[in-house]
């Protein structure tokens, strides 16, 4: 089954390279897909930042210390970046590690 999938992908790539019309269509579709994904990610980032700002405003008006929240966010982002780096290193080993 893996070989048939590989043959299918190879035939699609060969068709794209041989016929420029298919290549232009594929590039346009890829661009639209990437644009829509980025647009959705930006919307999610805006929503998350709005919620964070509202939460920090709530903490300010109630008199709670914001340093603990900001420190917690920094710890979480560091942990997530480390996990992502480890995951990428597992999938794509560095040049020296073979």
Provide the descriptors you would attach to this structure in a database record:
98 residues; mainly alpha; 87% helix
Shape annotation: elongated
Order of helices and strands: HHH
- DSSP strand count: 0
Number of domains: 1
- The secondary-structure class comes to mainly alpha
Largest sheet: none
Figure out the total of helices. 3
User: What is the radius of gyration computed over CA atoms, rounded to a whole number of angstroms?
Assistant: 23 Å
Beta-strand content estimate: under 5%
| Gap from first CA to last CA | 27 Å
Which spans have pLDDT < 50 for at least 5 consecutive residues? none
Mean pLDDT over the residues = 84
* Helix proportion range: over 70%
Describe the structure.
With 98 residues, this protein is an all-alpha fold. It has one domain. Helix content is 87%, strand content 0%. The protein is built from 3 helices and no strands. α1 crosses α2. The protein is elongated. The relative contact order is 0.04.
Secondary structure: elements and pairs:
Layout lengths: L1 H17 L1 H43 L4 H25 L7
Gist of the model:
With 98 residues, the protein is mainly α. It is 87% helix and 0% strand.
């Amino acid at each position: 089954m893996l070989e048939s999938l590989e043959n299918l992908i190879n035939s699609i790539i060969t068709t794209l390279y041989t016929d420029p019309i298919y290549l232009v269509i594929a590039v346009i579709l890829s661009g639209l897909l990437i644009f829509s994904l980025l647009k959705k990610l930006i919307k999610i980032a805006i929503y998350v930042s709005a919620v964070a700002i509202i939460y920090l405003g709530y903490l300010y008006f109630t008199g709670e210390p914001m340093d603990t929240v900001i420190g917690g966010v920094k710890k979480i982002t560091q942990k997530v970046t480390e996990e992502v780096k480890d995951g990428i290193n597992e999938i794509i080993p560095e040049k020296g590690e073979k």
